[in-house]
Amino acid sequence: SRIIGLAIHAGPGNFTNTNADYPTDFTTPEGKTIQNFFGTNFLPVGMVNRENWSASGNGHWSPYTNWPTLSSEALDSTLRISLEASATVVNDTILEVTAEGFPQTPLLHDLSIVVLIKESNIVSPQLMDDDTRDSNYVHMNVLRDFVTDTWGTSFGVSPMIPGDELSESFTATWNTSWIKANTAAVVYVFNPTNYRILQTIEVPIN
């Protein structure tokens, strides 16, 4: 059982634009695509497994105060698929990621898989809740890039049953400005019909 956090910096320019006081641009094209698709009516806000998504309304978004309860509910839910993954940088230039999936219950819908990179322990100024500026704020779980595209790629076709084995491999160019020891590869699988995430795994990048 695990909860894997991801900080996506996206939204209105007054939250994400850089200036002399806040010089680091944490935005990514994929993060903006996700924000535009799912929509937000306030920040900071988040989703847990993209539960309750609909094309209209904002019922899938929750303030951070609700995340512990939603996370506990997710951990108590039935495991539908388990994942294994590994990530390695070759010659400081190419990231190679492999992922395997093992259905634990019958799955009567297709599966898509997404691979992304996040980085933690990034020291950069942050505007705090009380409107003060913390010049030594440590940012954690920051989305750096997607290895797949935003909506991933096909991982399995319905029907899938326990005993099936799914696998996929991915490569991407490694950004040497990232501190490898502070990075991780995140792999998740989701139902492409309703975008609900079924399982995720985080592995260190070697």
How would you summarize this macromolecular structure in one to three sentences?
The chain has about 210 residues and is mainly β. The protein is built from three helices and twelve strands, in the order αααββββββββββββ.
Explain what the structure shows:
It is a single chain. By secondary structure, the protein is mainly beta. It has one domain: Immunoglobulin-like, CATH 2.60.40.10. It contains 3 helices and 12 strands, in the order H-H-H-E-E-E-E-E-E-E-E-E-E-E-E. It has helices at residues 13-16, 29-38, 67-76, and strands at 81-90, 94-103, 111-119, 122-123, 126-127, 133-134, 138-139, 142-146, 153-156, 166-173, 183-190, 197-204. The strands form 4 sheets. Strands 3, 8, 9, 11 and 12 form a 5-stranded antiparallel beta sheet that branches. Strands 1-2-10 form a 3-stranded antiparallel beta sheet, with no helix packed on it. A two-stranded antiparallel ribbon has the order 4-7. A hairpin with a 5-residue loop joins strand 5 (126-127) and strand 6.
